[in-house]
Design a protein that fits this description.
The complex is a heterodimer of chains A (69) and B (201). Chain A has 69 residues and is mainly beta. In chain A, strands 1-2-3-4 form a four-stranded antiparallel sheet, with no helix packed on it. Chain A has a domain of 47 residues. Chain A is elongated. The radius of gyration of chain B is 20 Å and the shape is globular. Chain B has one domain: Porin, LamB type (Maltoporin, Chain A), CATH 2.40.170. Chain B contains no helices and eleven strands. Classes of the chains: A mainly beta (69), B mainly beta (201). Chains A and B meet through β2, β3 and β4 of A and β1, β2, β3 and β4 of B. β4 of chain A pairs antiparallel with β3 of chain B.
Chain lengths: 69, 201
């Protein structure tokens, strides 16, 4: 994922690594009553987890887009 | 609820929550390249797996996407490399009248490196896609590219590269009018060529 935001990556959890970020995006061409139509994402990844034949990773993303005031 | 003023004056944009999750298996040191396999699924505001925002509809909360990919790079020596990929995707826009749309794609890019700077790339691919949402289409597309290259190195991902390319494609009658824009509007095949520079940082 790419966009405006901030986060951390490569946090060592011993069994793997963690990345956690907040990323956001907007549609300047769509105006709602509370400003430009926008979306916020919380992005979480666990990766570099030992797995048969290589490494495994899991990803979770929560997104929210506000339509109304 | 607010009004989407741009195009559909009367349609409403609902507030949308969505989640997406996925798993990936990788082997990053593998035959001079790597292998990566992933499965992803997402709903609602998260269904495009991206911070970008699709045109909103009042059905956004029921939208969903399933994506399965496999990509491999194999480079046994400094003269040859190949990258095959496979993609399977199903999306639905959330409208209860609209069924899933499907896309299946397979392709491979072999490259032959003659010197540290000169190489030749090929790429062949087949896609099949169908949609029962207007405009309805269903069909396959085949494409083949040849591209002589000047670049900085003998690895598949060496960059920067300057390449001349020529691509021939043909597609089934069910995709007539949906491929390549206006120049290929009434055709089921096409040839295109050009020069391309690629760099990464």
């Amino acid at each position: 994922m790419s966009g405006y935001g901030a986060g951390v990556e490569d946090l060592d959890l011993r069994f793997g690594k963690l990345a956690l970020g907040y990323l956001s995006g907007a549609r300047p061409d769509i105006t709602t009553e509370n400003g430009n139509y926008a979306k916020s994402n919380i992005d979480m990844r666990l990766y570099d987890i030992k797995a048969p034949g290589g490494t495994g990773g899991v990803w979770f993303d929560f997104a929210n887009s506000k339509g109304a005031p | 609820m607010v009004r989407f003023r741009q195009q559909q004056r009367c349609s409403l944009i609902p507030t949308s929550n969505g989640y997406a999750f996925g798993i990936r298996h990788q082997r990053l040191e593998w035959h001079g390249g790597y292998h990566s396999f992933s499965i992803q699924y997402g709903t609602g505001a998260a269904s495009n797996f991206s911070t970008s925002i699709d045109d909103p509809t009042r059905f956004v909360n029921s939208s969903a996407r399933f994506l399965l990919t496999e990509q491999v790079v194999v480079q046994p020596n400094e003269r040859f490399a190949i990258m095959p990929i496979f993609v399977y995707q199903r999306i639905k826009d959330g409208n209860p009248q609209h069924p899933w749309q499907q896309w299946v794609s397979f392709g491979a890019r072999p490259e032959v490196f003659f010197t540290k700077y000169l190489s030749l790339a090929f790429e062949g691919g087949v896609d099949h896609t169908h949609s029962q949402i207007a405009p309805i289409y269903d069909g396959w597309l085949r494409k083949f590219t040849i591209a002589p290259q000047i670049g900085a190195g003998r690895k598949f991902f060496s960059r920067p590269f300057l390449r001349a390319f020529m691509t021939y494609a043909n597609w089934s009658d069910g995709l007539r009018g949906f491929v390549g824009g206006i120049p290929f509007q009434n055709r089921t095949s096409g040839l295109t060529y050009g020069v391309q520079a690629e760099t990464w940082w």
